[in-house]
Here is the input.
Amino acid sequence: MTACGRLNALGTHDLPDRFDPVTVKELRQNLRRTTFVAPFLGVHVLAAVAMVAEFRTGASRGVGEGAFLVFTSGPLWLLISAVCIGILPLGGLVMMREELEEGNHELLQLTKLGRWRVVFGKLATLWGLSALTLVSLLPYVVVRYLVGGIEWWREMTCVLTVLGAAAVVGAGAIGASSFRGLGARAAVFLLYLGSMLVGCGIPMAVAGGMFGTTGWKGLYYHLTTLAAVATYSLIGISLARSRMRLALLTYEVKPSGAMIGVLIFAPFFIGLVTAMSVGFGGWIGLGLAALVAARVDTTPTSSTPRAPLARAIHEKPLE
Here is the structure.
């Protein structure tokens, strides 16, 4: 292949074929939207200003440990958090509207794309936009380390905190976007945030207080933090997945209602497991909550296919 041919092929196939189709579609759309382009350009200007302000005031040395370090490490990390945890993930509040209101989810499920692949693809896109913005800001973080003398482990803690929080908030926004009406979306999103803050805060605070965040004992805290991010990311996209269900059996509970119940009762369950295990099993409670969220909307399967008439009798459309 000639050089021109290779360049043409590179321009035509700009994303690898192994990427999920939903991820490719959402990436191509979101990278062109002003909700991404404007914050992406503006944050670099503000980051330069914030870093200069940090060096002049000496506000770059964070106090404390763990995930909350990102909020005490100066204006630069506050700015990064506002963009990567706030502005960009909140774009997920409209991601499911096109699929559900226009009936695209029915067409998607006629293909090989299942509900899990659709919601995972949307979360991967939303999280990828935040990660891309964070990576573009890493040169400022390196300057803080080289010029300001900030410990590298503090900067790495802030980076991982932003990435984890972006995934959790983005998943909740996607889940809330599957509901109709601005009021319903806001209520579900606030419920998700409240459940997440309590459900993640209790085991993380207990693990950090009992074992610390450094040394080999700090592994309990880090394990609990990873479990918290994975659990509530899964709960968020499971909520969106439950709204894509096309039909219900007559004896089934509406899956979105069951997921709302998971959001309400998950913090109590996680706190109970944490207390019963004397702080050691907070991550276990989070893992069990994730398992419940993944299984609460399992589509019934049968070893023998049913006739269309029997399916129509036993199933009802999901409104």
Q: What stands out?
A: The first helix runs from residue 3 to 12. Residues 18-177 form one domain. Residues 1-12, 301-317 have pLDDT under 50 and may be disordered. The CA atoms of residues 129 and 261 lie 30 Å apart.
